[in-house]
């Protein structure tokens, strides 16, 4: 028979191991082999804390940023009108700068420079806020004059303009449908670190009112516009501008939702009945198109075109196919305020405006006119002769003006 040799078990080996003569040689086993610490070796290690990436929203131990801007902080300075009050908000009053990042309170539409106090019955509260606002504006005006320094000479102006043309300088700031936003102020100051001026290209809805864009740029940045052609603006920083002393501009982390405003077009136009409004909308949609607006175009001359069209036509239609609904609604609001006119409809991607019953041309058209009966605009290609008798208008062509002047000289 075959006898299988007996193999000692591992447990007996480990059990008798500590009875060996290693102690006689002053040998101490490592803690991993020591039977007293065998239970501690197989214990589960403590779980490691989860990795947390650095976040810009984590403000532990940091104070809120103090901004010394002397005006109310808004998302857009050109596309917001403080005179029009909102009906409500589309979201809670979450600050777009992040929680506890700015020392100003967010009211839902802006972060005012002066802390809004509780309106009391006493009239002195409002007077104190008005005085504080006037002092801020005065300080901002003085600091701007100090930074601009002496005015540029004609040679310096032309050299700066040529230096920042498109073929010589590729750096520019784009101003789009949102207009002059708050974060764009930081971009402009970053450009001013390396150059005396910056080129700004304006496209879309804000180009209808370029005068407002220019005033807001000068007020909010403290610079000076030295050149404007169409939608291109060159903004000069000033002689005494120091980049290290630039104002602290906190950045918005997201775009806040626009508040709810009252309806632009109501069921009936003021002064007309329901049937008359329906007929006017049908006639407006069937009227000939004044112009077709391209997407992201320059609409500098749109207001003057509508004013000239109102001299002969009662209704004006503008084709806005391809534009966003919010874009041509903003265009309609600007036309209503600048022409001025009455909005009729936005149906079928069209803007239809009405001049009203008692329409009178705006005072801007008559500033340079010497007589009340005739108006000649030398800068325009067409000359318009207006008889100021209620609403009687007629066009006068250039060749007619020339013949009349020659006939008068011959006599």
What does this structure look like?
One of its GO terms (biological process) is Group II intron splicing. Residues 150-248, 270-366 form the CRM domain. It comes from Amborella trichopoda. Keywords: mRNA processing, mRNA splicing, Repeat, Ribonucleoprotein, RNA-binding, Transit peptide. The protein folds into four domains: 10-41, no CATH class; 73-245, YhbY-like (Translation Initiation Factor IF3, 2-Layer Sandwich); 274-354, YhbY-like (Translation Initiation Factor IF3, 2-Layer Sandwich); 363-410, no CATH class. It is an alpha+beta fold. Residues 366-411 have low confidence and may be disordered. Helix content is 28%, strand content 12%. It is built from ten helices and twelve strands. The radius of gyration is 36 Å and the shape is extended. Strands 3-4-6-5 form a four-stranded mixed beta sheet, with helices on both faces. The longest helix is centred in the first third of the chain and has 25 residues, at 124-148.
């Amino acid at each position: 028979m075959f006898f299988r040799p007996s193999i000692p078990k591992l447990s007996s080996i480990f059990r008798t191991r500590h009875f060996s003569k290693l102690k006689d040689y002053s040998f101490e086993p490592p803690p991993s082999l020591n039977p007293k610490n065998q239970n501690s070796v197989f214990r589960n290690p403590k779980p490691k804390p989860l990795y947390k990436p650095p976040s810009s929203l984590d403000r532990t131990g940091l104070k809120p940023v103090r901004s010394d801007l002397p005006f109310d902080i808004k998302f857009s300075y050109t596309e917001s009108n403080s005179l029009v009050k909102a009906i409500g908000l589309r979201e809670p009053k979450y600050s777009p700068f992040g929680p506890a990042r700015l020392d100003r309170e967010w009211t839902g539409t802006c972060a005012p420079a002066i802390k809004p106090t509780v309106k009391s019955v006493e009239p002195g509260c409002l007077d104190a806020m008005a005085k504080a606002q006037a002092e801020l504006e005065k300080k901002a005006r003085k600091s701007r004059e100090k930074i601009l320094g002496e005015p540029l000479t004609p040679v310096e102006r032309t050299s700066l303009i040529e230096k920042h043309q498109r073929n010589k300088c590729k750096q520019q700031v784009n101003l789009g449908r949102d207009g002059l936003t708050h974060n764009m102020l930081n971009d402009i100051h970053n450009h001013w670190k390396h150059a005396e001026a910056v080129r700004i290209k304006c496209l879309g809805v804000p180009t209808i009112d370029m005068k407002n864009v220019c005033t807001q740029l000068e007020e909010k940045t403290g610079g000076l516009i030295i050149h404007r052609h169409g939608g291109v603006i060159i903004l000069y920083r000033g002689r005494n501008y120091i980049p290290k002393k630039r104002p602290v501009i906190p950045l918005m982390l997201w775009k806040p939702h626009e508040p709810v405003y009252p309806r632009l077009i109501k069921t009936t136009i003021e002064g007309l009945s329901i049937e008359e409004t329906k007929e006017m909308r049908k006639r407006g949609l069937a009227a000939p198109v004044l112009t077709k607006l391209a997407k992201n175009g320059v609409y500098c001359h749109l207001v003057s075109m509508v004013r000239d069209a109102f001299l002969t036509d009662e209704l004006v239609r503008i084709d806005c196919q391809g534009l966003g609904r919010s874009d041509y609604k903003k265009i309609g609001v600007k036309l209503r305020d600048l022409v001025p006119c009455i909005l009729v409809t936005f149906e079928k991607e069209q803007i239809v405006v009405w001049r009203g019953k008692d329409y009178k041309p705006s005072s801007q058209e008559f500033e340079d006119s010497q007589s009340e009966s005739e108006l000649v605009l030398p800068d325009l290609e067409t000359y318009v002769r207006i008889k100021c008798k209620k609403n009687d208008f007629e066009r006068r062509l250039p060749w007619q003006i020339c013949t009349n002047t020659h006939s008068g000289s011959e006599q």
